[in-house]
# Entry
Amino acid sequence: MKLEWNLDFPVESSLLSLMESAASQAVRTEGITFPCYASVRICDDAAIQELNRMYRGLDQSTDVLSFPSVQWPQGRTARQQPERLKREYDEMMGACFLGDVVISLDHLKAQAREFGHSQQREAAYLLVHSLCHLMGYDHMEEEEKKIMRAREEETLSALGITREEGGAAVSDETLLALAREAMERSYSPYSHYPVGAALHAKDGRIFLGCNIENASFGATICAERTAMVKAVSEGAREFDVIAISTKDTPGWPCGICRQFMSEFSPNIRVIVTWGDGAHVEESTLGQILPHQFELKG
Ligand code: THU
# Structure
């Protein structure tokens, strides 16, 4: 699942990356298996008010607007009508267009304050809500509202985002699926060996990484270190699991990545998957890197 960003002003990357993971999870929850994309505009209250007035005749600001591109029959969603989605296939994007989402950052911030949770959680909620609309869900009638809410909760809790403090456990399946998606963004024109990683921090955040090669070869960075560098630079230092995805052969972390990860989480669980998810194996960093180098004593 790809998001095409349309930002009216610069937006913090941690909000955007959680929204990207939430979008992927939303289509996975719906059981959509072919590639999709949606456009997401982030604007202020004045801009969303203008759109609300133009398209809905309501001269007031709001948190989110959804413009589905697929005409779903009443009461039907993408999981029952995958062929409708396929008609939206966009050759240039190599994916099916779900529609447009517009989110007001002013509203997002105010609602996060009001509910006493993070802006990241609010961003994920608003996007998942809107994507549910793009996939055919609605909340006009009591019954359909319950189903839509259940779908939203299923998506958010798979990502460890819950109403309660602390969050839910993120399943290995979610992390493996995110690692597989991250692998699609690999830049590996020299080795043709794409690698993806999804790193789960103890504070609940998930950081994705892919290998990024370089013409000098030596400047190449592995997927595991890309994920960890992103995480540490965003303030996360404790991790419990890293999922790693490769194509045809198992991609256990190289020696440099093992040493690099042991700096922060010497006993992190390491799960590897290859062959389109057909194979999964796991170990711990302690097992695959005994006697790591330490500057102590
Ligand atoms: N690679 C990783 O991303 N992680 C590892 O732990 C081992 C190797 C990448 C680096 C390079 O782009 C490609 O795999 C082939 O070595």
